[in-house]
Amino acid sequence: LAVTLQKAGKNEEALKIHRDCLNRRTKLLGALHADSLQSASNLAVLLGQMGPSPERFKEARTLFERAISGREQTVGADHVSTLYTVSSLARLLSQAPGSLASDQLFATAESLHERAVLGLIKQLHEAHPLTLSAMHSQASNWLAQLEFHMSKQILQTESDEIHEQVALKKVMEQYRKVADLRTEKLGRQHPDTVATELALRECTRRLRSRRIQSKGVAYSSWTELCHEEMEQLNTRDNFTHARMRLRQYGVEKLLDELAGQSIVDAQTKMLSTGMTPFNIFARLAAGVFSQPNMAEEQPKLGRFRDKFMVVCNRPECDEQWESSDPMWCGKASMSKNHRMLILKDLHWEWFNALTFGYVSGLKAGIALLKDAREAAHLWVSAGGEAWPPLDRVGLFVQVYSHCSINAFHLHIVDLDNLGPTFEKMAYKNLRLEDAISVLEEEEKQGTVISTAS
Question: How far apart are CA 18 and CA 41, in angstroms?
């Protein structure tokens, strides 16, 4: 009943029942009984959730320490229930009211977080929901500790700014790991996944803000910029921001980076088709590699046959499209029917939707994306009963550097038969219609683009 009232937001009523339950269990069962220890922990959790009161904080801390001590005596220091209570106490200390916060308190919290995370990984595994909860709390403690130290600084030096950014990166890496594993285990819409993604987004915003303010620190690459500022690239707004940031970052600078990684040939400005790096779509488009099983599919492209090519995933990836096994989720095909439309023109401008129109002009970029849409629809319509109606066929692009292959490819997905990989890739699947819309808006606004060639 207390837990139900707590979930309904009736904390004062829940508090009375939790106290009564703890007193009754302690009297009838003894202070070390598992139910008594659980009641102590439940009451501590509620007190910690009721707001930054020094009195509630101190009582919750005492109750958590009582529960931990009791569980250490009864089930052992390394038992999962003990370790999770340790994590709960650590989280409470991380959220101490301002008047009680101190370096010593954060040091104690960090020690407890480390004990809980390492212990839960050992007893369960890294991807277990309880472990992920402890890891999320640990990252939150790092962030709270950073904010505490920052609040004590009167004047922030360049060294302090660099330290802050390094610390934020550490927090973001942990949040990102937890978000990925929670998405895989619980799904993207689960409240725990959403909470971690919101925390990650706030860290990204803060780091971006600090970089903009700092004159001495810059992104070392577009990839770094993309992953720190754009953890998702699946909406029109996301793509608009990415294109704007590329213009600020520099189209020529991106070209130099691609050439430096041998993704693009520095002399010809064409995508590399050699073995290192191995770009399967560029090799297929250039004809140095082939998929014989797809030969009969090419005539279905009609008048677009000379411009595009339809390719497939590896057979085993198609076979595992329904698998939620971590080994396949993210690697298997996104749906029962899943093909890719690739571009035969290997000029670097067309390697990704991110750069479309930034050499040849926006009209050319828009026209090519619309041609890709028409070609995909033409091919699907010629595919017989295997594919659903066109309104149930999804067309998606993935923006650099959230894409796994650095050559333009349009995902053609059967929306009536989606697999777990589709959800796994949701953060980076951008609807083709949204990509076209963004370029059209840039043209309408007269966006100034680079003269990179």
Answer: 10
